[in-house]
Amino acid sequence: MKPEALKGHLDGMILAVVAAGPAHGYGIIASLRRRSDGVFDLAEGTVYPALHRLEAEGLLSSSWETASGRKRRVYRLTRRGRGSLGERRSEWRTFSRAVEGVLA
Amino acid sequence: MKPEALKGHLDGMILAVVAAGPAHGYGIIASLRRRSDGVFDLAEGTVYPALHRLEAEGLLSSSWETASGRKRRVYRLTRRGRGSLGERRSEWRTFSRAVEGVLA
DNA sequence: CACGACGCCTCGCATCGCTATGTATAGTGT
DNA sequence: ACACTATACATAGCGATGCGAGGCGTCGTG
Prior knowledge:
3 strands, alpha+beta, 4 helices, about 100 residues, three-stranded antiparallel sheet, DNA-binding, homodimer
C-alpha cells in the first residue's frame, strides 16, 4: 500500500478514534492499528503532527496527564470536532462509492 | 471533499478506465467524471501528469492519432499495467475495509 | 545495566493533486 | 469577421501531508 493512499483520510480517522473516548498519541496509534486490523501501523512522525494540526483547527483539545510516572498529552473531541467527524464520515462514503464506480 | 483525498488512488482509476478500451487524456477525464457520478471532475493539470507518470512506469503505452483534425495521444494498457491494475484493486479493498473499520 | 516498550517532539524530504498559463483546432452563434 | 465554447495537449510552481530519521526522557525486565 502506497503511503500517499492515506492522505486526506487520516484526520477523520483520528477524530473517530478520539470520539470513542479521550486518548493520547501513543494510544491513538495503537487504536488505529487495532481497528484497522493491522493495516495502519503509523509512524509517530505521522500522527503527532496530525494531532497538533487538529488541535490548531479547534477539532481537538489537549491536556497533560501523568500515568505511572509518564507524561501524556490527552486529547478530547471538541464540539466542532464532533461536527467535523460527521462531515468526514459522509465525505468518505461519497469518495468510496465514487472510487468503486470507477474501479469496478 | 479535500483534494488530497484522491492522492494515491488516481493512478489505479486511470488504469481501470483505460482497461475498458484505448482512450485519450481528455476522454479519460470525461470517463472518470461519468463513472464517478460527477464526483471526480478533474483538472487537466491533474490527469496529464498522471498519464505521463504511468507511461514512464511502463503501465501505459501511447501513440498519436488524428480524429477530426485534432491530434490525440491515445493510451493503452500494457501487460504490466494490467497486472498493476489487479494489485491496485485489491489494495483498494484492503484500504477501504481498514478505513471503515476505524471510521465506523 | 542493557534493552525494549512507552511516550513526546521536530526537521526535512518526497509525492502528487491542483492552479495558472500557454498553445492549437473545430464548431457555433452574432 | 469576431467571439466564445468545447476539444485537446503540455508544463511550471505551489501547497498539503505522510514518513523517515533523529532526539529526549521514563519504566520494567532479564
